[in-house]
From TrEMBL:
It holds the Pfam family Metallophos. This is Calcineurin-like phosphoesterase domain-containing protein. Coiled coil: none annotated. SUPFAM superfamilies: Metallo-dependent phosphatases. One of its GO terms (molecular function) is hydrolase activity. InterPro entries: Calcineurin-like_PHP, Metallo-depent_PP-like. Residues 16-367 form the Calcineurin-like phosphoesterase domain.
Length: 594
């Protein structure tokens, strides 16, 4: 940890770093190099695009198409602010597909060349999906006439065909790349040393800061030298690195991907199907990548000795991201739902904060959140969850380093994105096709009335709740008895002084008649996804109504109602997550009023 003597807290030139997590970039305008297929023509623009169906988007926790425009908007905003350092905490691509990783690299190269921006990426569970390349594809690209179009890297991926189906497209550009290919394509963005870096190392390099040369680092950066054992036969790559992009600031990029074998292996295997995906994150780091903890200790010790500011980032959260409601959520939803298997154990935060990490930026969950943990030794970790550009509320974070102990974090919401609605005409064709063929579940066409990108992501979330979350994660008994009730009906008891409470909150009982339990569930997801950023979308009056309803539900004889009220209230009362100051000297976090 940094000491608090005058030397360590002295002011230095302000440094700004932008964090863009979970961009899930897909190059919708790219054409496949090895297939005679341009995509579908957008008659309103004349462009050919390769996009996923709206139905696919509204069944997924991420947007596949419009986030392309949001990513460009975010980069342009960063340029306008004069920020020169940008970190990408994983899932910069969507499944590491060659066509998309190449498209991303071209865009980042252009912004580097034109605006002098240095990008620093780390791996997420979607890049790479497995440590080694594998054939893959999707059945739900949008094809002509609103039909689904199969695009796959191998004919063997195609299941039984059906009458009227479009002819599948075969291209290697849609396979899932492994570490070697992805890191080669993204080599200029932190994964390998660059001449402009002041310093660069990995958990496996053995030179000191004083001995550092670019050639020495280049030799140590070979991927074959950056592996760890997962069993007696197999080693997997570890893409972690430390970089000093500007004097006095160390960026620690942690590769927390862990691919556990599905079964005991009897020899060397580079078959991707032999390994689980990496979505769990740090809980599995404790099982397979303990070397990272030792490395972090050494890096933090050096940072303190050399008076460097150490900022860590990785794809996965180090702290509970449910506003400490995870235990109640396990009881209410079940341990296998609501992505609760991704919640890091308390041991994760304890180990990493006592290893020397004080500020960590994560992603993965597509949420805006701040988690704070203080260890038994008195060390404090601030875990800052960066929202995704591909989900509500779309945005990125800006870290301003004011001094060695004083940090400002600002969340920039991408309200508008140029051309975000340019694909809507094609979705209308899809919707018409679904109606014509009497599809069982059809998405709400009102999403195509979205006036801006933020509004579009809200519609995405609302449909996701209706089409996926409620059927998959919730007790159907609770749903049937809750979502159709009005707010007034959810007020299970009205004490004698209730009228006075309404008046003091500037509310009337009629306000509670205007919404239902579904609205409350949707707003829970808005709070869970966007935290403080959702307050303006929900509105003060509605939040006050929810507060009164929750207070009443906590008095209910229904165990599920009491649990639900506690979960909702915790989601409403998290740590500052929009614009705030972190004081490492005092171990405090304080909101900056808008």
């Amino acid at each position: 940890m940094f000491s608090c003597d005058d030397k360590k807290v002295e002011e230095f030139e302000e440094v700004k770093i932008a964090f863009i997590a979970d961009a899930h970039f897909q190059d919708i305008y790219a054409h496949f190099e090895d297939a005679d297929y341009k995509g579908i023509e957008n008659p309103q623009t004349g462009d050919f695009v390769n996009i996923r169906t709206m139905n696919a988007q509204l069944q997924s926790t991420r947007i596949f198409n419009e986030n392309y425009f949001a990513f460009i908007e975010a980069l342009d905003d960063i340029v306008a602010r004069g920020i020169k350092l940008v970190a990408l905490p994983g899932d910069f691509s969507d499944d590491g597909q060659p066509v998309h990783v190449k498209g991303l690299r071209k865009i980042l190269d252009n912004y580097s060349k034109d605006h002098g921006i240095l990008f620093f990426a780390t791996t997420g569970n979607h890049d790479p999906v497995k440590p080694f390349a594998q054939d893959s594809g999707k059945t739900d690209f949008l094809g002509v006439g609103g039909k689904e179009q199969i695009i796959t890297s191998a004919i063997g991926n195609i299941k039984d065909t059906v009458a009227g189906q479009l002819i599948p497209i075969i291209t290697s550009e849609i396979k899932k790349w492994g570490y070697q290919d992805i890191l080669n394509e993204m080599s200029a963005f932190g994964f390998y040393p660059q001449k402009e870096y002041l310093y660069w190392e990995t958990p496996f390099s053995d030179y000191s800061y004083e001995e550092y040369t670019f050639d020495t680092a280049l030799e140590a950066s070979m991927l074959g030298k950056r592996t760890y054992e997962i069993d007696e036969f197999n080693k997997h790559p570890d893409a972690s690195y430390l970089v000093e992009p500007t004097e006095g600031v160390w960026l620690l990029a942690l590769d927390a991907n862990v691919y556990v074998p599905k079964k005991e292996l009897s020899g060397i295997s580079e078959n991707a199907n032999d390994y689980e995906g990496a979505s769990i994150g740090y809980n599995n780091v404790l099982l397979q990548k303990r070397h990272l903890i030792d490395w972090v200790k050494n890096v933090a010790k050096q940072a303190e000795q050399m008076n460097k500011v150490l900022i860590a980032f990785s794809h996965y959260p180090m702290v509970d991201f449910n506003d400490d409601a995870s235990e109640e959520m396990k009881q209410f939803f079940g341990e296998d739902n609501m992505q609760l298997h991704r919640v890091p154990k308390e041991e994760v935060a304890e180990l990493f904060v006592d290893s020397g990490i004080e500020i960590h930026f994560g992603g993965h969950m597509h949420i805006n959140d701040t988690g704070v943990r203080t260890s038994a030794k008195g060390n404090t970790l601030f875990n800052i969850q960066t929202p995704s550009l591909a989900a509500y509320a779309p945005g990125y974070k800006i870290l301003t380093i004011h001094s060695k102990t004083n940090f400002e974090v600002e969340t920039v919401v991408i309200e508008k994105a140029k051309s975000f609605n340019s694909l809507f005409f094609l979705y209308e064709q899809e919707h018409d096709y679904l109606k014509r063929t009497q599809a069982p579940e059809i998405w709400n066409k009102d999403i195509l009335t979205s006036e801006n990108y933020r509004d579009f992501t809200q519609w995405h979330l609302k449909e996701l709740v209706r089409l996926r979350f409620l059927p998959d994660d919730w007790s159907q008994e609770f749903v049937a008895g809750f979502i159709y009730k009005t707010g007034e009906e959810l007020l299970i008891a009205q004490p004698e002084d209730f009228d006075n409470k309404l008046k003091s909150a500037n509310l009337s009982i009629n306000d509670f008649k205007t919404w239902t339990g579904f609205d409350m569930v949707y707003d829970f997801y808005r709070l869970r996804s966007a935290d403080e950023l959702a307050f303006t979308d929900i509105g003060d009056a509605r939040l006050k109504q929810y507060e009164l309803v929750c207070k009443q539900l906590k008095e209910s004889e229904n165990d599920a109602y009491r649990l639900w009220a506690n979960i909702f209230e915790k989601s409403r009362k998290g740590k500052p997550s929009n614009h705030f100051i972190i004081d490492l000297k005092q171990g405090t976090i304080e909101s900056i009023a808008p």
